[in-house]
Amino acid sequence: MLIDTHCHLDFPAFDGWRAEALAAAARADVRRIVVPGVTRAEWSRLLQLVEQQPDPRVRLYPALGLHPCFMAEYGDGDIDALAQLLERRRDLVAIGEIGLDFFIEPHDAAAQIALLRQQLQLAKRFELPVLLHVRKAHDRVLQLLRQVKLARGGIVHAFSGSEQQARVYAGLGFKLGFGGAISYARARKLRRLVAELPLEWLVLETDAPDMVLEAWRDEPNRPQRVADVAQLIAQLRGEPPERVAAVTTASASALLRLDRG
Fold it and tell me: Which domains can be identified in the chain, with CATH numbers?
């Protein structure tokens, strides 16, 4: 069994073929999918989708957060609204997608940091892991994590940092998410990290409908491709695909507590 730890199945890009995407995921033995929220306006849509559990063969798990790339959409009540949902919804497996994005210009670093700090404090209060989006900001995120001291760590989605940063994240209780980016030959640094880091630190993801794999770059990404990510990791490491599947599934299940009832 495989787990897609980051798939935006609620996005409108899946409208009209969501059932097809889930059926294909089931055939690829992708049986669990974590669906992270990115803005308050989309939380209700995401929660409704998860409540429906549209394909009995594939379990959907919700996470909610305020993504750093949509700062202009947020208001004063958003953190309080997130806290209220965390109080009521015991099915939430993480807070995310949250983080810092200093890649997109222009950006307000101070505002992003303040928002992330508030969400990390919620994660600490509710003893939940976080799903982190980090671009050009790993050292700043690590500084915040050291200050807040989360009980349960989380996942660094689409990890793009250095080996040293990977080791610091792991020491703080984080797993590293890898997906379609490793399918590109030019991604030499990422492919080396996947080959050399402890397998227990890695988890699988698609970021569907984004982060497409090279072989399917002309179509939207889909959760079934997490099986191809597992195969790629196995090839890069020279290990059996069954071991990659077993270890990454166990790591994601334990971190996110996906087996809790």
Answer: 2-256 (3.20.20.140)
